[in-house]
Amino acid sequence: MEPELLARLDELATAGRTRSKVIRDLLREHLARADLESGKGPAVGVLAYVYCHDQSDLARRLMEVQHGHHAEVVSSTHVHLDRHDCLEVLILRGPANRLRRLAERLLALRGVRQGQLTLTPARCPLAKEHRK
User: Residue 74 is inside which H or E element, if any?
Assistant: First the structure.
């Protein structure tokens, strides 16, 4: 290993974390992110979006999409930002590709102004209980 890279590794290996533990954690994070990008494995997500409450029939259409994906939508929170705008935050669970498609469908509705999906792996790809 190059001396500069080894020095960076040693910087991460502090407060009781050995080089081995740091490498293990980095590998787990890399594999989990690769699984998310490929759509493999379970994920959890947070979808937050702002929409105009005055947009004709939008609240009903948002609710219909959510009910159509009841297996993925674990929870929702609705906040009135002002007389016209609402914030909705959904907690999602399922395959990453399915969560991305659901987010794209909701964010594409006319009247949804801004939105962001954040995905996190729902399991460690190296955990013993998940090995085959």
Answer: strand 73-80
Q: Which residues 6+ apart lie within 8 Å of 92 measured at CB?
A: 44, 45, 46, 47, 72, 73, 74, 99, 102, 103
Q: Looking at this protein, which amino acid is placed at residue 8?
A: R
CA distance 123 to 129: 10
Contact assessment for residue 110 and residue 76, using Cβ atoms and an 8 Å cutoff = no
Distance, in Å, from the CA atom of 78 to the CA atom of 50, rounded to the nearest integer, reads 10
How far apart CA 48 and CA 91 sit, in angstroms, is: 9
Average confidence (pLDDT) over 26-35 = 85
Instruction: Let me know if 116 is exposed, middle or buried by CB neighbors in 10 A (0-12, 13-18, 19+).
Output: exposed
3-state secondary structure of 80: strand
Copy the structure tokens of residue 30: 């890399």
Bridge partners of residue 91, in order along the sequence: 46, 75
pLDDT above 50 for 94: yes
> pTM score, two decimals?
0.77
Interatomic CA distance for residues 102 and 80, integer angstroms:
23
